[in-house]
Write the structure tokens for this entry.
Amino acid sequence: MGFLDAILGRRKPVKPDLDQLFAVPSAAVTLAAGGGFTPTGAGSVCFASVEGGAFTRVRDEVHELLDADLDPNPNADPDAETGHPVEFSQDDYGYTWLLARHPAEELNALVNDLHAVNTLLKDAGFGPQLLCSLVGFRDPEGRSLALVYLYKRGTFYPFAPLPGAKERRDNGLELRVRALLADDLRVEEDLSRWFPVWGAPGL
């Protein structure tokens, strides 16, 4: 950081560190013990929309990447659909979401998929389009919670929409989760960057 940057309060942008995603399984143990939230098995990656042939190429490469880890089953029905259940969608703001699912107990595999997709997009030159990734959790009362990873900040924050309420969040729960996971994740300190992700796939 230069002298003028220090005087004017400017900070260098944090270099994205996708390996931070691998801390989520450890955080999940803490979250279950201290908050009663367990993984749903769903997670997603959000990026600014990629149009035309570039989007088709990204979609095909993601499917190829995630399917590469599957062991072929010699007894499987040759006409049956195989591969990871990956879905692409666009939200009302024009952002593209990739939703990945695994059994709830396979959180490590889900995180590996999210890391691999982010890496593929970054290596393909779409790093500037990457916005966030999230992993979904739920408690016995049916409350939803997401741990959201901000790609450009290299940090996480909790997002907890209130059940049955339209675009209202449980700020008290979010702050409790922040304190609970302070030793497990690099939590975003600037609360103004705890952006709402209403209706995000995987939430």
Observations:
- Strands lie at 38-48, 86-90, 95-101, 130-138, 144-150, 155-159.
- The chain has five helices and six strands.
- The mean pLDDT is 84.
